[in-house]
């Protein structure tokens, strides 16, 4: 087995890792919250429930009474596909059923000016477990990933004037990641395996403003500085077994430094809301560029790292709601999840997929004096590019840019109790 083939096997393993990190590149994977999940997340200017803790904490002053949000669950399917992502003619294709844990929170109303809240949100969650076999070439692949981020923390809002509110949230961000990749090539008498696991804790602040100029119109502004790293722990292993030309080698380390950085962002929204009748909103969110080492470690006498580079992204959210007979809210929305990955490059092995996604949301519910219930569907789809393989003039696999697509359908159930 030549050194060139060995390098290709290593790159194939890294390509699967990059696919696992595809959700890393987007800031709006799916929409969290109760009302926001139906309105495509377009609530920066009109947030007035537990959703406000995440989208615009200033909206907490609009709550009429103290609230406990019991659950906000998502259940659905995720699909991901990379053309020729493993070998020429052999595609990466993963599908999984995912359950996204409960999103919970409570708001305590302290008079007409002050509101306090506490929330636990899951804005990012992905899981893939797949075994693929190509019998013609006797190639076997297995890849398992589980990636989840939880935001937990307090919020407060104060009404400075009848038409002006300010708010702030402070979140501890906990990310848990576990991945394993295994490749076996009988025709090359080679195998490759890689495992990665890490936990990371960071701190993020969200500052919000809502202004109501009159006639039921609202303007919202949210500022989020870059997150600050607090704690991390991680481990990684890798091995490649080849023929007589390549020495068998492996490494394992449990001293891996991790930094799960959230970039600064600015969101502005405009909307109109007539309580118990209808509302609509339009938001623009700008995520600033960033770059950092997601992981860094020593292996086989060398300094290794997984470098993350993100360009600026401008995302859009658009949504509306209409109340039937004053108690049945019907909501619909649209949002973008543009990739922040720079152009996919054959020379960047850790580059994540550059796939822009679009989301459609719809929900229906029932609201009475003390209880609200909403059920809905989020459909997410998109196409773009990733790293794959082609055969060169020497009939050897060579890395190249290929097409990729992803698709998700999520079912939401939300309940809230007012007291």
Please provide a written account of the structure:
With 419 residues, the protein is mainly β. The chain has a domain at 3-75 and 102-320: Beta Barrel (Porin), CATH 2.40.160. The chain contains 3 helices and 20 strands. The protein has a 14-stranded antiparallel barrel with strand order 1-3-4-5-6-7-8-12-13-16-17-18-19-20. Strands 11-14-15 form a 3-stranded antiparallel β-sheet, with no helix packed on it. It is elongated and about 70 Å long. The mean pLDDT is 84.
In short:
This protein is mostly beta strands.
> SSE string, helix = H, strand = E?
HHHEEEEEEEEEEEEEEEEEEEE
Low-confidence blocks of residues: none
Number of strands: 20
The profile of the biggest β sheet is: 14 strands, antiparallel, barrel
CATH topology of the domain at 3-75 and 102-320: Porin
Termini Cα gap: 70 Å
Task: Give the C-level CATH assignment of the domain at 3-75 and 102-320.
Answer: Mainly Beta
Helical percent range? Answer: under 10%
Percent strand:
over 45%
- Which CATH architecture of the domain at 3-75 and 102-320? Beta Barrel
**Tertiary shape:** elongated
